[in-house]
TrEMBL record, chain A:
InterPro entries: AAA+_ATPase, ABC_transporter-like_ATP-bd, ABC_transporter-like_CS, BCAA_Transport_ATP-bd_LivF, P-loop_NTPase. It comes from the Archaea. The keyword Transport applies. One of its GO terms (molecular function) is ATP binding. It comes from Halovivax ruber (strain DSM 18193 / JCM 13892 / XH-70). This is ABC-type branched-chain amino acid transport systems, ATPase component. Belongs to the ABC transporter superfamily. GO terms for biological process: L-amino acid transport. Residues 4-232 form the ABC transporter domain. SUPFAM superfamilies: P-loop containing nucleoside triphosphate hydrolases.
UniProtKB/TrEMBL annotation, chain B:
It comes from Halovivax ruber (strain DSM 18193 / JCM 13892 / XH-70). InterPro entries: AAA+_ATPase, ABC_transporter-like_ATP-bd, BCAA_Transport_ATP-bd_LivF, P-loop_NTPase. One of its GO terms (molecular function) is ATP binding. PANTHER family: HIGH-AFFINITY BRANCHED-CHAIN AMINO ACID TRANSPORT ATP-BINDING PROTEIN LIVF. Gene3D superfamilies: P-loop containing nucleotide triphosphate hydrolases. It comes from the Archaea. PROSITE patterns: ABC_TRANSPORTER_2. Residues 251-273 are annotated as: Disordered. The keyword Transport applies. This is ABC-type branched-chain amino acid transport systems, ATPase component. The lineage of its organism: Archaea, Methanobacteriati, Methanobacteriota, Stenosarchaea group, Halobacteria. The keyword Cytoplasm does not apply. Keywords: Amino-acid transport, ATP-binding, Nucleotide-binding, Transport.
Automatic annotation (TrEMBL), chain D:
Belongs to the binding-protein-dependent transport system permease family. LivHM subfamily. GO terms for molecular function: transmembrane transporter activity. It comes from the Archaea. The chain crosses the membrane at residues 58-78, 85-105, 111-132, 206-226, 255-276, 288-319, 325-352. This is Branched-chain amino acid ABC-type transport system, permease component. It is found in: Cell membrane. InterPro entries: ABC_transp_permease (IPR001851), BCAA_transport_permease (IPR052157). GO terms for biological process: amino acid transport. Pfam families: BPD_transp_2. It comes from Halovivax ruber (strain DSM 18193 / JCM 13892 / XH-70).
Automatic annotation (TrEMBL), chain E:
The chain crosses the membrane at residues 67-89, 101-122, 134-154, 166-188, 195-212, 269-286, 316-338, 350-375, 430-448. Residues 1-47 are annotated as: Disordered. GO terms for cellular component: plasma membrane. It is a multi-pass membrane protein. Residues 1-17 have a biased composition (Low complexity). This is ABC-type branched-chain amino acid transport system, permease component. Its main location: membrane. Keywords: Cell membrane, Membrane, Transmembrane, Transmembrane helix.
Length: 232, 273, 424, 366, 473
């Protein structure tokens, strides 16, 4: 059974019809890359899955259950984590609090936290620092860490390398690899080679619909079908 | 020369959104500005129109109404607008509950001297304002929706209305910020047609992520990355520039020096370097 | 459509009285006891039963040998603007022959300056107590009559008594902002300074003010050994308990009505326990106070039957303002009888200079002064005492006024015509 | 030199009448010179007294304002019913106190019962606040903020009038303040503190120290709640980015309800203190009076900022006690001085720092 | 219903869709589309004739609803007098007293006049708050300036102004003072927006209020404010006696046997008409401003201030002047109030709850609709009147109708009489609060706004069409 299924999802911002019938499937254990130019609706797809911007038509099925129309917190509690675009860490909370908040009341916080801190030694160093004082890369780490500790079955990762120095990107990639060992993942990434490197399969979006999909095996940006939609 | 910036810089605390940009634009030119998210494109527009004050640098503008260039570095928005610098917004930013016609008419009115202070006369008595607004609506193809409240328009129509409002100030320079954002594929053509039409008698700067549009209609393309102007030139030149390919596809710091893509823009960029 | 030009003339044997009193809000109690007194005064005169309701509304009182009295009672909420507007309602819409009322001196002043100037019907003020309403040329009016006692009378009785006893040398005055408080302050200042006592600059505070501690401290610092408060009952319950805490200062002034007595009573009980004595109160330096009237200070048949009538109709004894408004009512009746007319103007003419026969202070104890239409009457001075068993049922407070220690005759407490700027 | 400000102005005035016209500033600055005034002010007992009283007042301002700030910080709702909640708190507290304390109760019993009353009021009013939030406020979150202001203003109006009706029917009126409830205060709190008085000659009402202690306790509790509990974490995070919190699996709606409940409970708790406060006491007028003060504190501090509320409460509390001192001593005889000063502080703060002392732009949007 | 998604400024404008476009005369579908479509095949001459004809026709049509409302206001006194004068009928079982009924349920004289003060004040409040989007929480200050202004002038307390100066002149002067005050307040306040603007204006107004409460110069007792001691205020053409009438319930002009029709006009009603006339003029003046190019800029600022700036408006000065106008009319309202009632107290004029009243009636009537607040004020005053403890209110009516036995029935230690006394008499604020909450929740566009939503345009525009529909049936 697929972890996630999207069936003919249409999503709007006000009158603007952003997702115009998206279909996709994610199997357990996979990393699936979501590709496309700026503004084609990648982030919106993730928001639709989480019901942050509920689709007006179509269904989102998570672990076989129809979650369309549920409250975001309910979807999240069913095991969907989110590493949003632009990180969105809580700037006035400490690093540790940022992690703490993702665990929820029932989670075994201490052990999860220690696990995360061994994964991201940088974060341990700054555990009592307010998150806004962290560098962009560290914030991105924190956002990923926050997405991971929730013990999720599916992690939605939106442009994790955006605005990061290459060195940091490497660390982030390592972190994502670690994470993928435990959860299924959808990865939105503008850095095409990076995406190809990490993901097992890809979907290519244009104008709010899936235009291409397949295995990442051997795919390069030279590929005509990719080139058509990504570069000019 | 219509517009020139010298060492234009804008800091937001630690972030330098626009850094030392020297840029010039000629009358009648259509120049696109591209660059990854957060490159500073919108901020650049904000500096030009006076919505933001630069941290450093200078902006000069030479509208047709003046013989000499004017220093507009510290001019507030309404002054740059009156000088002939008009913009549309990345996020639709019109007057939502009033009619489409009124959206444009109010912008026309802004340029009719003291008319706006005539609180004792009926706004509808100014036939020339209305006529002008109506002609703009015809030009952008919204005449049929003139009476509709702006918020009832479709997204694509709102994007065109954005342009209409900007056009109403009879600009010397029109700044368009992602006019096709969120416009469905069928309608993108309409918007580009309007832009080309407008560009025939106005100077235009265009921020766009839709490369088809950019490459198709621009006289010149300027590329911003991390606040810096890294490349500019004819569409073809820019398209083939390595730096641009890297910056625009890579979307991460290429100035950090760590990117070693020597031969092929599509190579294994950044990750395993 | 009503005709405002015609103020009086309610027809042969109905006399219509518009009564304005606070019947809602914090100071409704003032309005209620005032109405009770007024009804009683008229009822007593004609041997009728007083109206029992103290709500707003229209009430009739039939009399055997006088006109039928119709009372239209309106709520002022203790607010001058409301008082003015209901006064106008009464004149225009109800076509009343006479106005009675106002517990707030500011209301009475406003009616005098904004309403009386435009009409010719008479106005009986009460219990609004600022002296200037009848003493100052700014407010006195030939249609305006007041039987109720006022602040200058308070000061000329209570102030003088304390001064003459020689118990105080420096006095602080705290009073409410507004006509009443200012009246208290200026009258006490005048009387006390006349007796050679130092008076500190009076301090005025907002209604409901409660941080008296600091004011007392400062007064003590400046050597005050006496204090006078000029407050309505919106502030008295804050002022008096604080005054009791300052044993070095003797608190005197005007005696208060029931509700304040309740508050003082419970404060004393809280500090001294239930079985406190007269001496305890004296030791707390609370008093002596001058009283305009209290039921237990006069012993005469009129007062006796007044008390009976009052307790009968309302379940409580008459209070501080009752005599003043009683006399107001009684005087109206007497004026109607004497003039044989129910025309407002005739009634007013009859009241001028009239000596009122039936009054709780005794027969003929109130006389309207020619120069300002203020009724002159006597005042007493008394200490508060624990409420005696005799009155425990009809005076629901732990303290009550004691036997008078001094009685000042009318001519000793009135402002002489020569000192009054009002001459009608 | 003895002069009045208006006399001074008269000297300057071109139009001689001006002095008379501006007579409301007729503040007899009866200083034996500025030096004398300063000498009086700078006496240790005066200063300490002003500061201690100021802290007592600040504590109560804080208790009432902090709920307002929490609610605004998380939910972006400017709650105009807040004063009414404080007023209800004073009455409910009064009911508990009057019902349990008798004339013979000792100091210890009274203080204990006060704590009980505070607990009861907090619980009852928090539940009430939660109900108001779910039934009335929730449907209009997506409207412009003006509507939330209007709605809560209406709720406050209704609560005030209902209280008026009940107090009249129950005979708590005609007294303007409910003195039976105010009278449950133990005598020690009414007087000044002996030790301070004897050793330093400082004459400060013990109640203010009691209130200050209460305020510190409440501030600490709120602070601990915000920083040490998961819920506090949700609230603080939610005031930055409530969508993100939602996406982490937290039911933000419920958090809104809880916060509104707590805010209401805190206002009501402040109300319980008002019951014993010599300057206030249970009264329906509290609604408006307290509301205005709470707004001033919250706006001066910066809408939505806990730290700002603490700081602003202190500023306003001390300004209040300082101007009260000026009035008591007769240095200024203008009775409206404390009120004017506090509103001037508001205006001045907004002019100089439009976001308040610790305000952040765009807080509370969601 | 509302739209804030496109508003990049994060501003707190209220953008209920019914408001502006319906207030502006050109944006309703019918009128506009006609204008845009070519003339068709009729000859130019025909068209011109048609146009002249339809211009008049249209004008009359547009103002039909205005005329109807004005007519209702004009005849109200006569109606009221007739209805309340209906004598009681003694049936066997009970007395039916329609007069008393109407007396209890129709707003009485003072309340209808108060409607004018409050209505005009609320319109001025709506002018800045509803049309420009800046909630002026300190608006009472301007009302107070008007009220105090005319009284102080009449009492000879304004240096350089003779107490004999006609009311019409001092009223306008007071308006100008308020205008200037608004500019001064705006200077510091318009740097802020939203809640902060509301709070700073409130702060300034409260400071003024406290000062006025203690302003000995203005009145013997500043707490209760000054009384008018000058010549009776007259409305009309200053210095032309035959074209002026004195206002005031007692001091105003009354006319007997008007035009020999046997009709007596009391001073109250004469004042009512005179004050109503001033309010009408002010209404049209404000409406004119709103429909002017200037007014369109105000609306643009409310809709999207950032964009208004970007199309070339120096919004600061437009806001300032709009604030000034609004203050001017608020002061006129205050002047009328004080002129009529002869008195002004700080609590009735400068206090922030006076602003709150304006806010309430504006919401009830419909924010961003100019006439709405007037209807809201009507509703408000009607409730006040019905629930007042005074004669002609519901409480006295109930007491009289129900009779003593029912009143003194006790339930749970409380009698029905007590309940009436405490829950009905003088309890207008309670019911007003409830109505207000209900309006915010259920009718956010207010009476007039919702009516317009229903009709699909301004009443003036739509009424004729609606009538037409019914006529055809
Ligand atoms: N809150 C919003 N309101 C209106 N339109 C929006 C909103 N958010 C996004 N859009 C529009 O929806 C479209 C899709 O946006 P989305 O963020 O999903 O793109 P994306 O594929 O994630 O792009 P990017 O690579 O730039 O992150 C864009 O045209 C964008 O302008
Ligand atoms: N008002 C502001 N305060 C602080 N930072 C800002 C502000 N405006 C923009 N920035 C930052 O400046 C940088 C440039 O932003 P800008 O909006 O100009 O990007 P852009 O090139 O228009 O991107 P996009 O294509 O996504 O619209 C970003 O990092 C952004 O976060
Ligand atoms: C003693 C009271 C009758 C005084 C009254 N409150 C007044 O203002 O005059
Ligand atoms: Mg995205
Ligand atoms: Mg941009």
């Amino acid at each position: 059974m697929s972890v996630l299924e999207l069936e003919d999802v249409h999503t709007y911002y006000g009158e603007s019809h952003v997702l115009q019938g998206v279909d996709l499937q994610v199997e357990a254990g996979e990393i699936v890359a979501l590709l496309g130019r700026n503004g084609v609706g990648k982030t919106t797809t993730l928001r639709s899955i989480l019901q942050l911007t509920p689709p007006r038509e179509g269904t989102v099925r998570f672990a076989g259950e129809d979650v369309t129309g549920l409250a975001t917190s309910d979807v999240a509690n069913r095991g969907v984590g989110w590493v949003p675009e632009e990180r969105r860490v809580f700037g006035y909370l400490t690093v540790e609090e940022n992690v703490r908040i993702a665990v929820g009341p029932d989670g075994e916080y201490e052990s999860l936290r220690d696990e995360i801190f061994t994964l991201f030694p940088d974060l341990e160093r700054f555990r009592d620092e307010e998150a806004r004082n962290l560098s962009g890369g560290q914030q991105q780490m924190l956002a990923i860490a926050r997405g991971m500790v929730g013990d999720n079955d599916l992690l939605l990762v939106d442009e994790p390398s955006e605005g990061l120095a290459p060195m940091i990107v490497e660390q982030v990639v390592d972190a994502l690899r670690e994470a993928s060992a435990e959860t299924t993942m959808i990865l939105v990434e503008q850095n095409f080679p990076l995406a190809m490197d990490l993901a097992d399969r890809f979907y290519l979006l244009d104008q709010g619909t899936v235009v291409e999909s397949g295995s990442t095996e051997g795919v390069t940006a030279d590929d005509e079908r990719i080139r058509r939609y990504l570069a000019a | 020369m219509l517009l020139s910036t010298h060492n234009l810089t804008k800091d937001f605390g630690a972030i330098t959104a626009v850094e030392g940009v020297d840029f010039t634009l000629d009358h009648g030119e259509l120049c696109s500005v591209i660059g990854p998210n957060g490159a500073g494109k919108t901020t650049f527009f904000n500096l030009l129109t006076g919505a933001l004050e630069p941290t450093a640098g200078r902006i000069e503008f030479a509208p047709t109404s003046r013989s000499d260039p004017v220093d507009i570095t510290d001019a507030p928005t309404h002054e740059t607008a009156l000088l002939g610098l008009h913009r549309s917004y990345q996020i639709t930013n019109v007057f939502p509950t009033v009619s489409v016609l009124e959206n444009v008419r109010i912008a026309v009115q802004a340029h009719r001297g003291r008319d706006s202070w005539q609180f004792w006369r009926n706004a509808n008595a100014f036939d020339d304002h209305v006529a002008e607004a109506e002609s703009i609506l015809s030009r952008i193809g919204l005449a049929a929706d003139a009476a509709e409240p702006a918020e009832n328009l479709s997204h694509g129509e709102k994007r065109t209305l954005e342009i209409g409002v900007a056009l109403a100030g009879d600009p010397d320079l029109l700044l368009l910020d992602e006019p096709t954002a969120g416009v469905s594929s069928e309608d993108v053509g309409t918007v580009t047609d309007i832009i080309e039409d407008v560009a025939a008698d106005h100077a235009v700067m265009l921020i766009e992520h839709n490369m088809d549009v950019v490459m198709d209609i621009s006289d010149r393309v300027a590329v911003l990355n991390q606040g810096e102007l890294i490349e500019q030139g004819e569409p073809e030149t820019v398209r083939n520039s390595d730096a641009v390919q890297r910056a625009y596809l890579g979307g991460y710091d290429s100035s950090g020096g760590a990117v070693e893509s020597d031969d092929d823009a599509n190579g294994d960029v950044g990750v395993s370097a | 459509i009503a005709d405002p030009g015609d103020g009086g003339g309610g027809g042969g044997d109905t006399f219509k009285i518009g009564a304005l009193q606070p019947t809602s809000g914090d100071l409704a109690y003032y309005g209620e006891i005032s109405l009770m007194g007024f009804y009683s005064g008229l009822a007593h005169r004609y041997g009728a039963d007083p109206v029992e309701s103290v709500e707003t509304g229209t009430y009739e009182m039939e009399t055997d040998d006088g006109p039928t009295f119709e009372f239209v009672v309106q709520d002022t909420g203790f607010d001058p603007s409301t008082a003015q507007s209901v006064a106008e309602d009464l004149i225009i819409d109800e076509d009343v022959d006479l106005l009675f009322g106002a517990s707030s001196s500011d209301s009475a002043r406003q009616i005098s300056t904004s309403v009386l100037t435009e009409t010719d019907i008479p106005y009986v003020v009460g219990p609004a107590a600022d002296a200037d309403i009848t003493v100052s040329n700014d407010y006195c009016h030939e249609q305006l009559f007041r039987a109720s006692e006022h602040t200058a009378m308070d000061a000329r009785a209570g102030g003088r008594y304390v001064a003459e006893q020689g118990d105080v040398s420096t006095v602080a005055i705290f009073a409410a902002e507004g006509a009443f408080g200012e009246g208290v302050a200026s009258n006490y200042t005048e009387v006390l300074e006349g007796e050679g006592i130092d008076v500190l600059e009076p301090r005025f505070v907002e209604s409901g003010y409660s941080e008296f501690g600091g004011l007392f401290d400062e007064a003590v610092e400046q050597g005050a050994d006496g204090v006078v408060g000029g407050f309505t009952f919106a502030t008295l319950p804050e002022f008096l308990p604080t005054a009791m805490e300052y044993d070095e200062m003797q608190a005197f002034g005007g005696f208060a009505e029931l509700v304040t007595n309740q508050v003082i009573g419970s404060t004393i009980e809280a500090t001294l326990g239930e079985g406190f004595t007269e001496q305890d109160i004296k030791d707390a330096q609370l008093g002596p106070f001058t009283t305009r009237y209290h039921w237990n200070q006069y012993d005469n048949p009129i007062n006796d039957s007044f008390i009976d009538m009052h307790v009968d109709a309302y379940g409580i004894v008459p209070d501080l303002f009752s005599a003043g408004t009683f006399v107001g009512g009684s005087a109206v009746g007497q004026a109607i009888d004497e003039s044989g007319s129910t025309q407002g103007a005739d009634v007013a003419a009859a009241m001028r200079g009239m000596t009122v026969e039936e009054t709780p202070k005794g027969e003929g104890a109130y006389t309207f002064q020619e120069h300002n239409n203020q009724a002159a009457s006597s005042m007493t001075v008394a200490w508060p005492v624990p409420t005696t068993d005799e009155w425990a049922d009809s005076w629901d407070a732990a303290v009550m006024p004691g036997e008078p220690v001094e009685t000042y005759a009318a001519d000793e407490v009135m402002v002489p015509a020569s000192e009054s700027s009002c001459s009608l | 030199m003895i002069g009045t400000l208006s006399g001074f102005l008269a000297g300057l005035a071109v139009v001689p009448e001006l002095a008379a016209i501006v007579s409301f500033v007729d503040v007899p600055l009866a200083l034996g010179g500025v030096g004398d005034f300063l000498a009086r002010l700078l006496q240790p007992d005066t200063l300490v007294r002003i500061l201690l009283e100021g802290m007592g007042k600040a504590a109560i301002y804080f208790m009432i304002a902090v709920g307002l700030t929490l609610v605004f910080g998380l939910m972006g709702v400017l709650n105009f019913a807040h004063g009414a909640f404080a007023m209800l708190g004073a009455y409910v507290g009064g009911i508990v106190l009057v019902g349990t304390i008798s004339a013979g109760s000792g100091v210890g019993t009274r203080l204990l019962l006060f704590v009980v009353a505070a607990g009861v009021v907090f619980a009852v009013m928090a539940a009430f606040g939660a109900a108001v939030e779910t039934k009335l406020v929730r449907p209009i979150y997506d409207r412009p903020p003006t509507y939330q202001i209007l709605l809560t203003f209406g709720i406050g109006l209704v609560l005030e009038e209902l209280s008026r009706i009940v107090t009249t029917l129950r005979g708590i009126q005609p007294e303007p303040t409910w003195s039976a409830a105010a009278g449950t205060i133990p005598a020690v709190l009414e007087g000044s503190i002996d030790i301070l008085q004897e050793t330093l000659g400082i004459n400060v009402r013990a109640f203010y120290l009691f209130a200050a202690a209460g305020g510190i306790l409440v501030a600490t509790a709120v602070w601990l709640f915000l920083t040490r509990t998961l819920y506090g974490l949700y609230i603080r995070a939610g005031s930055e980015d409530s969508e993100m919190v939602e996406a982490l699996g937290v039911d933000v709606r419920r958090a809104f309800t809880v916060v509104f409940g707590i805010g209401t409970g805190l206002a009501a708790l402040g109300g319980v203190f008002l019951t014993w406060d010599p300057t206030w006491g249970p009264s329906v007028l509290l609604n408006i009076d307290v509301l205005l003060f709470a707004f001033v504190v919250v706006v001066i501090g910066g809408l939505g900022s806990f730290k700002g509320t603490v700081a602003a409460a202190l500023v306003v509390g001390v300004a209040d006690s300082f101007t009260t001192w000026l009035f008591h001593t007769g240095i200024v005889t203008f009775p409206g001085l404390p009120e004017v000063t506090i509103f001037l502080l508001l205006v001045a703060t907004l002019v100089v720092k439009p976001q308040g002392l610790y305000g952040v732009e765009e807080v509370g949007g969601h | 219903m509302t739209d804030s998604t496109n508003d990049g400024t994060g501003r707190t404008a209220t953008t209920d869709r019914s408001t502006t476009d319906s207030e502006s005369t050109r944006t309703t579908p019918t009128g506009e589309v006609e204008r845009l479509t070519p003339e068709g095949d009729s000859s130019p001459a025909d068209a011109a004739a048609d146009e002249a004809d339809s211009w008049l026709h249209l004008y009359a049509r547009d103002h039909l609803s205005h005329a109807a409302v004005v007519a209702l206001f004009v005849v109200y006194p006569l109606l009221y007098a007739q209805l309340t004068a209906i004598p009681a009928i003694d049936l066997v079982v009970a007395t039916v007293d329609p007069g008393a009924f109407f007396d209890a349920f129709l707003p009485a004289t003072t309340f209808v006049i108060a409607l004018f003060f409050l209505g005009l004040f609320a319109m001025s409040f709506d002018f800045i708050s509803g049309y420009t989007g800046y909630l002026s929480f300190g608006h009472a200050a301007f009302y107070g300036v008007g009220a105090y202004g005319i009284i102080l002038a009449a009492n000879g307390k304004v240096p350089g102004l003779s107490p004999e100066t006609p009311f019409m002149v001092t009223m306008i002067l007071a308006g100008l003072v308020a205008f200037a005050l608004a500019l001064a307040i705006g200077l510091v306040s318009f740097r802020l927006s939203g809640v902060y603007f509301a709070m700073i204006t409130l702060g300034v107004a409260q400071v003024i209020y406290v000062l006025v409460r203690n302003w000995d110069y203005a009145a013997g007792n500043p707490l209760s404010g000054p009384s008018h001691n000058g010549p009776t205020p007259e409305i009309g053409i200053p210095y032309v006696d035959s074209l002026s009438v004195a206002i005031g319930r007692l001091a105003g002009d009354s006319f007997e046997n008007v035009f020999g029709l046997g009709l007596d006009l009391s001073a109250t009603w004469v004042s009512y008409w005179a004050i109503g006339l001033v309010v009408l003029v002010c209404y049209f003046a404000m409406q004119r401003i709103i429909h002017s190019p200037f007014g369109r800029v105000m609306i643009a600022i409310r809709e999207n201030e950032e964009r208004a700036r970007a199309v070339g408006y120096n919004v600061f000065w437009y806001k300032m002047v709009a604030f000034g106008f609004s203050a001017f009319f608020a002061a006129i309202a205050g002047a009328l109030f004080a002129g009529f009632s002869n008195n002004a107290s700080p609590d009735d004029t400068f206090y922030f709850l006076v602003t709150a009243d304006a806010l309430i009636v504006t919401i009830i009537g419909g924010i961003g609709t100019l006439a709405g607040p007037l209807f809201g004020a009507g509703f408000f005053q009607w409730l006040e009147d019905v629930l007042s403890a005074e004669q002609g209110g519901l409480a006295p009516y109930l007491r009289e109708t129900l009779g003593e036995p029912i009143l003194s029935t006790e339930v749970l230690g409380v009698t029905l009489g007590d309940v009436i006394n405490s829950a009905v008499a003088g309890r207008a604020p309670l019911y007003l609060g409830i109505v207000f909450v209900a309006f915010v929740l259920l009718v956010p566009n207010g009476l007039l706004g919702s009516l317009r939503d229903r009709l699909g345009g301004t009443v003036a525009k739509r009424l004729p069409a609606v009538l037409e529909r019914y006529r055809r049936r």
